[in-house]
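Input chain follows. Return structure tokens only.
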Amino acid sequence: MTGYTPSSLSELAASGAPFALIARDATTVELLLGDVVDVEHLADIPLIDAAGTPREVLAMVPFRQVRERGFECHDDGAPLRCLVVNEHVAMGRAAVIEALPNASIPLDEPGFDIPDEEYADIVRRVIADEIGRGEGANFVIRRDFVAGVGADAATAALTWFRALLEHERGAYWTFAIVTADHVAVGASPEAHVSAQDGVVTMNPISGTFRHPAGGATAETLTEFLESTKETEELFMVVDEELKMMSAVCSDGGRITGPHLKEMSRLTHTEYVLRGRSRLDPRDILRETMFAPTVTGSPMQNACTVITRHERTARGYYSGVAALFTPRAVADPADPTHDLDAPILIRTAYLVNGRLRVPVGATLVRHSDPYGEVGETHGKAAGVLGAIGAIPREVLAPSPDVIDEDAPAPQPRRLADDPAIASLLGSRNARLAAFWLNPQEDAAGPFAGRSAVVVDAEDRFTTMLAHQLRHLGLDVSIAPWNEVTDAALDAAELVVAGPGPGDPRDQASARMRRMREIVARRRSSGAPLLAVCLSHQILADSLGIDLRPLAAPHQGLQKSVDVFGVPASIGFYNTFTAHVTPGTDRVGVAEVSADEDGAVYALRGPGFASVQGHLESILSRDGMATLERLVGVAFAPAATR
């Protein structure tokens, strides 16, 4: 340590040296000093020095890094910027606040880059053209609040950081990261991913309640918590992050919650996901790029939709700030660093005298265009009010009540209200116990058998593979465009997976390959399980009609009959196989359909299929139904 104290901060800012200030608890501010290194890939983040010694690194990971997963984006060249830490100083929060500047910083010509009506039109197009055509369950489309700033960038950063420390509450990280040509100041409510002592944690947050004039109350919050749109939005992002957890954690991940994330102007609902992993934290970061709460689902197609509907690159918005901290390693097989990575949202960026505050709304099938416009206003106001760029509202008209952002010794938590706690807890009654309870290892009914799960660009396959392993199967996952015919033929069971898009699209290489996989497996008579998109493709191969639904079933929970057994299942489909009502057989296939003819499942010689997602948290009867359908696929010919 050098002798850096809070009073040194203004001198540090004036020196032009790079630095970061981070507040992760109520009493301490951490000052990080070091050298800036820009790298191309996550694997290049310099966690080990030339002598082989682990070192601490703070990395600013831009959205464009999704290219490492093969996903689309507007590429603005934003660097993967690393502050290689030479000094890490802990300072008292109160002393830091006292030492930082607090003069008002005026904004020049503030406003959104996309007018309200244009943004509302974008919302309508995404609902109609993307969600309405099966491209995914939800998508986050951003716009930017922009303004000119005449103040010195480092001074502005310190001023805004002070304002956030004084007036924002409930943040996971409050931070200011200052490098030669870029400033980021924010109060992120959301930890994207952390890894500590082999335990990986993710924190999906979704649903936004904007506090009314006078402040939030249990009564006003209740209406929000009872909203179907807000509840389904949260369930969908939990499903999406469980896909990531199942990819990086040997135990797949367990969910706890829901909880309230209470901010100064906004309240969110959240779950916490935990699992165990021995992966390098850079690999964990790659496999979890990026949070569905700021992109959408399924993730790969969400990136494509974002590229279609956002006019400019995201920069660091929806990326992460990732702090890699060396730790004592008892086992050489363990990773060398812990990871703490909040999502870069609720953040103001200052580059070349221009302020940019990116905000987005999560668009689902129930979205109201003007409601989503209002959500972007609320999120921008949350940042701008907290940094003092716009006037702060008061909690109540009483003259002795200070502004709503002011800290209180014992702030009232709405989550402590018994009615609110009961309403939150009731949500779990809808969810699959498999993901809520500890997942004990078991031999499983299909122990010793193998399966290949074909990924058709929806990583629900990672959750599906995890459940199949609990049934005893030795499972591998292969992308649709990489799996070979030899690998398919060698597998005892092929699981043709879900994916976005129109199954009738003859121009799609992905649809053509999935059709080939289903046809090859059927012609050989070898066991096949088809899920969602692949269920529709199987139905089409049997001569069953495919048609779009009148309203997409994205994140919808339904109780359906699956061959005489009622099952509560989660659905994410825009298209459906359809038979004449009352039909229970088509050729060799037995049909399970509703009274309108929508086909929920098929079974026949060597195959079974299901329209719903048995792996979803919405599928209360998912594991039992999956075991039944795998049993059908494996059944000897004499019993089919």
